[in-house]
UniProtKB/TrEMBL annotation:
Keywords: Cytoplasm, Pyridoxine biosynthesis, Transferase. Its EC number is 2.6.99.2. Its main location: cytoplasm. NCBIfam families: pdxJ, PRK05265.1-1, PRK05265.1-3, PRK05265.1-5. This is Pyridoxine 5'-phosphate synthase.
Length: 265
């Protein structure tokens, strides 16, 4: 079964708006687990704009599924990861001025630096995932770097303007997943996924887990977190079912259709 790792950074963003104590991303993480999430992701950024060190410390003690620490490959973050020992660390590029993580990590262009970070984290007993664009040279560089997982960046798929562009992006994701698996990597995916576009990505057989934040927390503000997580799990299961009954590949999603998930077959 495909897993859902929920990013609770946005809960911390609301808390930091008042520099107070509520809402607590630790409470959110526990509700995600009760609703069936397979893991919790937090991004401890250099500028500490949302998640704080205290959150990572508490989550490390309380999360029962899996804690995935998203982080830049800097010495400071590597030391923190080695101290807290999350089950997984996902290396991402980080720029201060960005609103969220933008492109994937350029593993190909920074092979030595990334390889060193991967080694240190793995020696500390932490599984390492590299967040990369779905490009052949990045996938093979990730395998050379010794990563356990790649997380395929689904941002271009999510932002595609029409069905044709979305189909082309989906094909890139499928090709990257197949290539990665062939090179011995395990495959995750995420960024920009929502209730309407998640199905075809969830249907990629090589993908073990999706990492989703914004759409779930945005819905949770209105309907509650447990319901928001359960509805995402249902949308993912619906996407997987397409794959399992062998319906021809990659049903394109119809953008803008209200209610439920619709495919153009
Ligand atoms: N994966 C990575 C590596 C990310 O940086 C993010 C955003 O923090 C996500 C997944 C989740 O993206 P979104 O919030 O758009 O669902």
């Amino acid at each position: 079964m495909i897993g859902l790792c929920v990013n609770v950074d946005h809960v911390a963003t609301i808390r930091q708006a008042r520099r107070g104590e509520e809402p607590d991303p630790v409470h959110a993480a526990l509700l995600v687990e009760l609703a069936g999430g397979s893991g919790i992701t937090v991004h401890l950024r250099e500028d500490r704009r949302h998640i704080q060190d205290r959150d990572v410390e508490l989550l490390r003690r309380l999360v029962k599924t899996k804690l995935n620490l998203e982080m830049a490959a800097t010495d400071e973050m590597i030391e923190i990861a080695l101290a807290f020992k999350p089950e997984m660390a996902t290396l991402v590029p980080e720029r201060r001025e960005e609103l969220t993580t933008e492109g994937g990590l350029d593993v190909h262009g920074h092979a030595d630096e990334v390889g060193r970070a991967v080694r240190r984290l793995r020696e500390g007993g932490i599984l390492v995932s590299l967040f990369i664009d779905p490009e052949h040279h990045q996938v093979s560089a990730a395998a050379r770097a010794g990563a356990d997982f790649i997380e395929l960046h689904t941002g271009s798929y999510a932002e595609a303007k029409d069905c044709k562009a979305q189909q082309a992006e989906l094909t890139r994701l499928i090709q990257s997943a197949t290539t990665g698996r062939g090179l011995g990597l395990r495959i995750n995916a995420g960024h920009g996924l929502d209730y309407r576009n998640v199905g075809p990505v969830a249907a990629i057989p090589e993908v073990e887990e999706l990492s989703i934040g914004h759409s779930i927390i945005a819905r949770a503000v209105l309907v509650g977190l447990e319901r928001a997580v359960r509805e995402m799990l249902a949308a993912m299961a619906e996407g997987r079912a397409w794959c399992e009954v062998q319906i021809p590949p990659q049903p394109p999603f119809i953008k803008g259709e209200q209610g439920g998930i619709s495919y153009d077959v």
